[in-house]
Amino acid sequence: MTYSAAALVLFSGGQDSTTCLAWALERYGRVETVGFDYGQRHRVELDARLTVLDGLRRAFPAWAERLGADHLLDLRGFGAVGESALTSERTLEMDARGLPTSFVPGRNLVFLSYAAALADRRGLDRLVGGMCETDFSGYPDCRRETLDAMERALNLGMDRDFRVETPLMKLTKAETWGLADQLGGRALVRLILEESHTCYLGERGALHAWGRGCGACPACELRARGWDEWRAAA
Ligand code: ZN
């Protein structure tokens, strides 16, 4: 354990970033969180962040001691530039690159730039994000190669020694449930299941076996499939 290090977790209130937050809380002496308001169509995402943070503090007193400030940064200007199915009424479809219209161009590059500026001011040296190459929808800014280049650019441009850490990079969604179970047992799995938000349509509604959501959008399908795989293997 390197409790001397301090981390900033890119925290959206979803399954992946909640697992990353638990991962960081197991490792680092001080952990802060950052979220981005880029004009999401659904405020439920931003509300889920606060519910999950509150739930973590209550269920895990040892983590609560190390869990510091939460920051919400206003990136609505960027959201307007990268207008897509997530932030407008356009339907989900594929573009000429084979990328879904839910792809906000360069989103993680912008998030990491803002996160690094904040981390510099807050004295945090690890940037932790839930980017993943395995189950993802083809987003080029989730690839480790992109993040290695970004880490280098941030360190050159800010004269720092940041590390961009991506604990889920090689994991399937089923393995991400397994990691949550390892880190925080059934209490963490339950919290993620009930309170983290994934659905593209902003649907909360009924609690399915795998959590809340419409059950039909790509994000819900991915989450439900991962849950079923994990349960089948357990
Ligand atoms: Zn959905």
Would you tell me the overall average pLDDT? 89
Identify the CATH class. Alpha Beta
Radius of gyration: 17 Å
Structural class: alpha/beta
Along the chain, the helix and strand elements come as EHEHHEHHEHEHEEH
Q: What is the tally of beta strands? A: 7
The CATH superfamily title: HUPs
Give the low-confidence spans: none
Q: What is the molecular shape?
A: globular
- The strand line-up of the biggest sheet is 3-2-1-4-5
Note down, in words, how this protein is organized.
47% of the residues lie in helices and 13% in strands. The chain has 234 residues and is an alpha/beta fold. It has a single domain (6-233), classed as Rossmann fold (3-Layer(aba) Sandwich). A five-stranded parallel β-sheet has the order 3-2-1-4-5, sandwiched between helices. The chain has a two-stranded antiparallel sheet with strand order 6-7. A hairpin with a 2-residue loop joins β6 and β7. The model has no long low-confidence stretch (mean pLDDT 89). The site of zinc ion (ZN) has 9 residues, from α8.
Main traits of this protein?
234 residues; alpha/beta; Rossmann fold; 5-stranded parallel beta sheet; two-stranded antiparallel ribbon; 13% strand; binds zinc ion
Write the layout of secondary structure elements.
Blueprint (H helix, E strand, L loop, with lengths): L5 E5 L4 H13 L2 E8 L6 H16 L1 H6 E8 L1 H6 L25 H16 L3 E3 L15 H15 L4 E3 L7 H23 L11 E2 L2 E2 L5 H16 L1
Parallel strand pairs: 1-2, 1-4, 2-3, 4-5
Antiparallel strand pairs: 6-7
Helix pairs in contact: 1-7, 2-7, 5-6, 7-8
The structure holds zinc ion.
The site of zinc ion has 9 residues, from helix 8.
